[in-house]
Write a structure and sequence with these properties.
The structure is a single chain. By secondary structure, the protein is of the alpha+beta class. The protein folds into 2 domains: 7-93, NusG, N-terminal domain (Alpha-Beta Plaits), CATH 3.30.70.940; 95-168, SH3 type barrels. It has 3 helices and 13 strands. The chain has a 6-stranded antiparallel beta sheet. Strands 1, 2, 5, 6 and 7 form a 5-stranded antiparallel beta sheet that branches. β11 and β12 (155-160) form a beta hairpin. The longest helix is centred in the middle third of the chain and has 13 residues, at 95-107.
Length: 169
C-alpha cells in the first residue's frame, strides 16, 4: 500500500531506468512521483506515442526521513543516490512543489521543461484546472508562462496561462 507520509526526495537513477525503478519502488510500497509526458516519435516505417520522463534521470520518492528508509530506496535496482545540498543528508523537496508538478502533468495538454529560471514573481493560480498550484510568472516572447520549479533538480516546467488567472502567492 503506497502512502504519502514523510517527505519527498529527488532520486537520481541510472540513465533510461526511470520507469523500471519507479515500478520496483511501487512494488516495495514506496510512494513515488515520476512526471512523464507523451510524445510522438517517428521512425522510418512508423509513428508511435512514447512516454518520456519529464526530468530524465530523476524521480521522486516519499519516505520517512530515516536511514532505514533511505537505504530501502537506494537498494532498489536502478537507484543511484538521493539528492542533497548537504553531503550525506538527503534534502527534502517541498511538498507544494510536488503537488504543483502533479497538477501540471495531470491536466496540461502541452508541457515543456525549462532550465532553472532565476527567481521571478511567485504566483498562485486563482481559478481553472490548475487552481491552487504555486509557481513563478515568466514572460517568454509574447506569452505569459506559469512555471513550477523543482529547485533541487534545477529544472522547471511551464504552461501558457492568462495573467488574470494568477495572483501573488
Amino acid at each position: 500500500m503506497r502512502t504519502e507520509t514523510g517527505n519527498w526526495y529527488a532520486l537520481h537513477v541510472k540513465p533510461r531506468h526511470e520507469f523500471a525503478t519507479n515500478g520496483e519502488l511501487t512494488r516495495k510500497g514506496i510512494a513515488t512521483c515520476l512526471p512523464a509526458v507523451t510524445r510522438l516519435r517517428q521512425w522510418k516505417d512508423r509513428k508511435k506515442l512514447i512516454d518520456f520522463p519529464l526530468f530524465p534521470g530523476y524521480l521522486f520518492v516519499c519516505v520517512e526521513p530515516c536511514h532505514e528508509e533511505f537505504n530501502r530506496v537506494l537498494r532498489t535496482p536502478g537507484a543511484l543516490t538521493l539528492l542533497s545540498t548537504v553531503p550525506g543528508t538527503p534534502t527534502p523537496v517541498p511538498s507544494h512543489e510536488i503537488h504543483s508538478l502533479k497538477l501540471l502533468v495531470e491536466k496540461a495538454g502541452d508541457i515543456d521543461v525549462y532550465p532553472h529560471l532565476t527567481p521571478g514573481t511567485r504566483v498562485r493560480v486563482r481559478r481553472g484546472i490548475f487552481a491552487g498550484a504555486e509557481g513563478v510568472l515568466v514572460k517568454k516572447e509574447s506569452h505569459v508562462l506559469f512555471v513550477v520549479s523543482i529547485n533541487i533538480l534545477s529544472r522547471s516546467v511551464g504552461v501558457k496561462m492568462y495573467a488574470d488567472d494568477l495572483e501573488a502567492a
